[in-house]
Amino acid sequence: MSRTALGMPAVRPVHGQGNLHAETPFPAAAKAEMTNAQMRANIRHATHTIRGKRASVVEELPDWQELRTAGSALKQRVMADLPALLEQFEEQFTARGGTVHWARDAAEANRIITGLVQDTGSQEVIKVKSMATAEIDLEEHLAGHGITATETDLAELIVQLGHDRSSHILVPAIHRNRHEIRDIFLQEMPETDESLTSDPRDLAEAARVHLREKFLSTPVAISGANFGVAETGTLTVVESEGNGRMCLTLPQTLITVMGIEKLVPTFEDLEVYLQLLPRSSTGERMNPYTSMWTGVTPGDGPQDVHVVLLDNGRSAVLSDPQGRSALHCIRCSACLNVCPVYEQAGGHAYGSTYPGPIGAILSPQMTGITAAENSSLPYASTLCGACYDVCPVKINIPEILVHLRDEDVRAQHAPRAEGLFRRMPRVPSEMDVMMKGASMVMSSGRRMGLAERALPLGRAAAGRDQAIRWLPGVAGGWTDERDLPAPPRESFRNWWAGRQRDQEEGR
Fold first, then answer.
1. What are phi and psi of 227, to 5 degrees?
2. Which residues pair with 300 in a beta bridge?
3. How far apart are CA 50 and CA 336, in angstroms?
4. 3-class SS at 443?
5. What is the pLDDT of residue 428?
């Protein structure tokens, strides 16, 4: 990506990336999260429900696969011509009365947004649900400068009032059930009382009462954007509740944070994504609310309109031909709803703003695979391929996971970068030695045959119950969590050779 065209470096920022770095590596975090039986039950129920709705509405479209292909092709076009499209968007947005800001990383984006809010004199803002603002940890930054941000999306409000973290791209409070939500509302919203039930209708009404005054009195709103149209400078937000429409139309000042990859070339291109996104995300044929705004319209809506174009590692992802299609993501969350790993571990285990399969490829690319906490994310997958099957823009997530695993291994075995031993390779780990030994054995039929003679020893270790319950060293990571089936009585090679002998002897 051209530095001069974008006004930002084509490298990953080392510091100030917000909520992209996990605090705990995935294996340890997942192990802890899996002890929460209620969370796992909540997520299983919600994801299976959404999965079923999605399948039903997708089956209605005879051209669904063609739509997926079109969505993928459009994203490839955007990635190939991103600098020019960004400049076109800036020109069109500015020509229509808006102001464009460029942010290299989360720290710069937060400084820009905080300054814009302070310029209005307001100490309160209302927010539309936004992955980009969560990514840069905007709410905490604003709070540090005396500015209170109120989430208006119901699920985000639940997370905010519960002093919690989002665990799903589309349904941030998916790990909570309605009884837990009632308890949060009773504790955190003073206008509610014990008569509040856990019926979804009552909970939604309580949230409306809580938010109504905020909508009418807060002069500044902050949103994300699902799409930005380069041709016209138009921004688009799609949502299901109407809270977004209120935020986008009532305040005097509107500040939008948009990742630089969210562009589409022309207004006509929205047709494809406005069919793909609702079906893949909520299992709806269309979004109940699709809001679009193009700059400033005198006397109608916000009169002070800004957009912050956020890089925060995206240009580094774009520079990797094998991994850049992660930027095609339209944040539908379909991959989370079919992932067996996410279903068991939950979204918090991933650490980053982006959980599930897409987070496992996007976060480590944005921070760099050498970021220790994120280097385990590409292994948070069985490579079953379900995510690829449902992705509306055909991101081959399993292929990118394998690519990132390769990058991780190469990074681990790179020569030391400093010190007296910088030219020496790293000391091999136990896993390195084991894999090297397996490679030597399996690359030779003779050596493999000799190794197969040890199968009886494995059966003896398994005992009568035919399961190996303990292995030493790094292999113990397997038997710590599950039993290893006993090896077969003989190898396929020996069985086949015996079968051939029997046939030759006419048996």
1. -150, 150
2. 297
3. 10
4. coil
5. 73
Cβ–Cβ under 8 Å, residues 228 and 258? yes
- How far, CA to CA in Å, does 194 sit from each of 2, 313, 396, 426? 59, 47, 49, 62
Residue with tokens 């929205």: 270
Q: Which residues pair with 91 in a beta bridge?
A: none
Residues of the chain with CATH 3.40.50.10420: 3-315
pLDDT at position 253: 98
Task: Tell me if 309 sits within 8 A of 102, measured CB to CB.
Answer: yes
The vertex-193 CA angle with 189 and 194, nearest 5°, equals: 125
pLDDT at position 13, please? 55
Q: What is the pLDDT of residue 5?
A: 43
| Residues 126, 133: Cα–Cα separation, whole Å | 12
CB-CB neighbours of 207 under 10 Å? 22
Residue 281 to residues 239, 251, 284, 290, 329, Cα–Cα distance (Å): 11, 28, 8, 14, 12
Contact at 8 Å (CB) between 378 and 362?
Answer: no
Residue in the block written with tokens 């459009």: 74
Residues 227 and 262: beta-carbon distance below 8 Å: yes
- Residues whose CB is less than 8 angstroms from the CB of residue 445 and which lie 6 or more positions away in sequence, other chains included: none
Which residues, at least 6 apart from 116, have a Cβ–Cβ distance to it below 8 Å? Answer: 253, 255, 306
Residue closest to 377 by CA, chosen among 414, 349, 409: 349
Amino acid in position 13: P
Full strand arrangement of the beta sheet holding 289-293? 263-264, 227-229, 234-239, 289-293
CATH 3.40.50.10420 fits 3-315, yes or no: yes
d(CA 398, CA 383): 5
Count of H-run helices and E-run strands, the chain: 24, 12
**pTM (2 decimals)?**
0.86
Q: How far apart are CA 172 and CA 503, in angstroms?
A: 63
Residue that the structure tokens 């075995």 belong to: 413
Q: Which of 276, 293, 294 is nearest to 285 (CA)?
A: 276
Pairing of strands 467-468, 263-264: unpaired
- What spatial distance separates the first Cα and last Cα of the chain, rounded to whole Å? 70
Report residue 142 CA to chain centroid gap. Answer: 24
Distances, alpha carbon 82 to alpha carbons 38, 86, 90, in Å: 44, 6, 12
- Give the residue ranges of the chain where pLDDT is below 70: 1-16, 413-427, 464-465, 507
**C-alpha closest to that of 154 among 216, 203, 213:** 203
Handedness of CA 251, 253, 257, 260 (dihedral sign): positive
CA distance 191 to 194: 11
Which residue type sits at 407?
E
